[in-house]
C-alpha cells in the first residue's frame, strides 16, 4: 500500500495500542475498536504525522464502517499535490 497507509497503521498501533496484526486494509474503523471521538483524534494525529491537511470535515470520514483502504484513499485524494510530489521523489 501507500506511505499514507503505513502512517495510518503506525498511528493506530502506537497511539491507540491496536495490535499490528489486526490492522488490515479491509478492517473497518469500528472493527479496530474506534468510536467517533477516536476517529477525530486519529485524524488530528495524521495531520501532524503527514504534515498535511486531513479532511476532518469530509462526510465519509464520519462513518465507522469505512475500511482503512477507503480512509487512506480519502486522505490521499484530498492532497493531490502532495501525492504528486511523493511520486516524483
Account of the protein in words:
With 89 residues, the protein is mainly alpha-helical. It contains 4 helices and no strands. Helix 1 (3-15) packs across helix 2. The model is unreliable at 83-89 (pLDDT under 50).
Round the mean pLDDT to the nearest integer and report it: 81
Order of helices and strands: HHHH
List how many beta strands DSSP finds. 0
Which structural class is indicated by helix and strand composition?
mainly alpha
Beta content = under 5%
- Low-confidence stretches are 83-89
Q: What does the radius of gyration come to?
A: 12 Å
Quaternary structure state of the chains depicted: single chain
Tell me, what's the shape? globular
Helix content: 40-55%
Q: How far from one another are the termini?
A: 17 Å
Write the layout of secondary structure elements.
Layout: H1 3-15, H2 36-50, H3 68-77, H4 80-88
Helix pairs in contact: 1-2
